[in-house]
Amino acid sequence: xxxxxxxxxxxxxxxxxxxxxxxxxxxxxxxxxxxxxxxxxxxxxxxxxxxxxxxxxxxxxxxxxxxxxxxxxxxxxxxxxxxxxxxxxxxxxxxxxxxxxxxxxxxxxxxxxxxxxxxxxxxxxxxxxxxxxxxxxxxxxxxxxxxxxxxxxxxxxxxxxxxxxxxxxxxxxxxxxxxxxxxxxxxxxxxxxxxxxxxxxxxxxxxxxxxxxxxxxxxxxxxxxxxxxxxxxxxxxxxxxxxxxxxxxxxxxxxxxxxxxxxxxxxxxxxxx
Length: 273
Fold this sequence. Notes:
This protein is of the alpha/beta class and 273 residues long. Helices cover 34% and strands 25% of the residues. Strands 2-1-9-8-3-4-5-6-7 form a nine-stranded mixed beta sheet, sandwiched between helices. Helix 7 links the parallel strand 6 and strand 7. Helix 2 packs parallel to helix 8 and helix 4 packs across helix 5. The longest helix is centred in the first third of the chain and has 19 residues. The chain starts with 13 loop residues before the first strand and ends with a helix.
């Protein structure tokens, strides 16, 4: 835990944490068996530890919108290298809100100095509004992604953990069809045959992944803030979205960039009940 007598960000109502390029972190390279959620948590902890040691405390204590990063790990994509890289972004939403989709997209583009994402993979919350996830939750979010695709900002779209029935519903409804469905095989040894058949028939690529249903819970985020800053700095935070980005050198399969960006909001007591 950080050795601090007073909170660093007592006035903060929103926070964005950007790990920068974790490929450059020696501490991350040594951790070869980490899970995606552990990798994310370690990235946030390391970033906040570095930020809290160097931040101007007088400015931070009055800031409502806080941005945390370590400048030595922030890596932009040079324009002359952009065409040689495939930029993939997986967006983990904690809330079903099209504005969060646009917000996350713009943040990635700003941080990496790009104007387009080659592949955006959408991971929806498991129980939005305390309801079982269904196609109606997808529609406003997917429409926002379709708009950005029409504008030339995204090349292709993918989804995660859709069973064959929901995938069929989305495919039949959507103007721009998903090109990928990521499937988590934890707890089973193979993909359902009916999903394989439907994906093949509609040219949807099935890929496996190991991401948990909720990659960053409110509790984990608050614990990270408490342990790296001050106990009061960890109160009442709710993650809005998390992004994992990676840039692969085309035709070589080498990961040049990989990082996380997370945004959270702090809600007052009157907003929590």
